[in-house]
Amino acid sequence: MAIASVNEKWMRYALTIAAKAEAMGEVPVGAIVVLDSEIIGEGWNQPIAGCDPTAHAEMLALRQAAGKVNNYRLLKASLYVTLEPCAMCAGAMIQARVQKVVFGAYDPRAGALGSVFNIFQNKHLNHKIDFIGGILSEECGLMLRKFFEARRQKS
Q1: Annotated catalytic residue 26
Q2: What's the pTM?
Q3: Quick count: other Cβ atoms within 10 Å of Cβ 134?
């Protein structure tokens, strides 16, 4: 399978995970961690429900993946997320030594992989992560726009 179609396959799955956040009234962001073509972690935004500012989709997926492999290092793992990671999540990915990150929609307000910051390309860090953005960006962005439009209509 071509790399582009693999990235789209996993991003489509991350979109289904994002729907779980939306059903809870959370910002619809979903993330998965893949190792050797197997999902070893998944998470969706839950900071409101968990009263936890760190309960971003990526953080929850990383925690689950680390638990599954019984190691805080996720060498050779790829993380797929529907929205460009923030600085906190990008930092956690560096600490976990993730190999690759693929994201959907760009985040012009808090994106840390090129939109606002570019943490992965900081020359002072000891771990470099390959990344690609914009995979299924239309679908990922549409889910977020619809969520926020509905939220504004309720107010």
Answers
A1: no
A2: 0.96
A3: 14
